[in-house]
Write a structure and sequence with these properties.
single chain; 151 residues; mainly alpha; Methane Monooxygenase Hydroxylase, Chain G, domain 1; flat
């Protein structure tokens, strides 16, 4: 907990900023959601108005330091592209995930003809590691010393 006056003030200021930033971000998300809905329903005039409003809100957020200017520019650009595509009535090309084509089956040689064979992982028994939960050597020593110290 903060004890110095300056720390207490910083905590107070940070809380105010957090609430204001949250409000601004929420307004942007709401507007962009409405814009997306207008684009899906192909309402061009409403989409144009919402785009203007969204760009205005994004610019304000940048000036307040809520979001980075490049991020705002990127969002404005992408939404403007979608609105202009709606105006031209061209379907917007959205990047689709690449679907992997089924690989051709390779015939395996019988085990007798193979030169080197591997044992299956299931049959191999591994010893539990002495290293508890992936600790470094330094931290292992500290842990060992703590365990060995009398209370």
């Amino acid at each position: 907990m903060a004890t110095a006056k300056s720390q207490i003030k910083r905590v107070r200021q940070a809380e105010k900023r957090r609430l204001r930033n949250r409000s601004v971000k929420s307004g942007i998300k709401t507007t962009l959601g409405k814009l997306e809905e207008a684009i899906e329903q192909k309402r061009t005039s409403e989409a144009k108005e919402l785009l203007k409003l969204a760009s205005k809100l994004l610019d304000k957020a940048v000036s307040k330091g809520v979001i980075h200017k490049n991020r705002a520019a990127d969002k404005k650009s992408r939404w403007a592209q979608r609105v202009s595509a709606l105006e031209k009535e061209k379907p917007l090309i959205v990047k689709e995930e690449k679907k992997e084509e089924p690989k051709e089956k390779v015939e395996e040689k019988p085990a007798a003809k193979r030169r080197f064979t591997r044992k299956k992982a299931e049959t191999k028994k591994t010893k539990p590691s002495k290293k508890p939960s992936g600790l470094s050597r330094k931290n292992q020593r500290k842990l060992k010393n703590l365990r060995n110290k009398p209370l």
